[in-house]
Amino acid sequence: MAKILVVDDDPAVQATIRLLLERAGHSVGSASDGRKGLARFETEDFDLLFLDIFMPGMDGFETMRLVRQKRPLIPIIVISGRPAASDAGCAPDFLTMATKLGAVSSLQKPFRPAALLAAVASGLDAAKRASPSAQPTSSVASRP
User: Disulfide engineering: 8 pairs with which of 16, 52, 71, 109, CB 3.0-4.6 Å?
Assistant: First the structure.
């Protein structure tokens, strides 16, 4: 299965996501803010990244920007506890903004376990399709 990094400043959210992902057979690493997440990302090879948008220090938008510079195709799923624009009247819709900036999916906290696992499956599938090694080769061996 996949190796997934969860970056969220809420220990309860980290623990919940870890539990769900490990039960699904994934290996999970975690970090409590963007800087720590970026440090882990630079020293370990992850297949997918869960990223909270609002964290102290380096927020999710800045973290995503720096991650994209290093690995543009890694699937990133953003999560946020802030209400969506439709829920808060004229407030900005940060989850939609994050998907426009390159997140493959977004989840509003609290999220359903099935939604989290579906987002992971979709993100990993998209990464496989986008990977250069997943592209079919058109070379045919010639025989004398």
Answer: 52
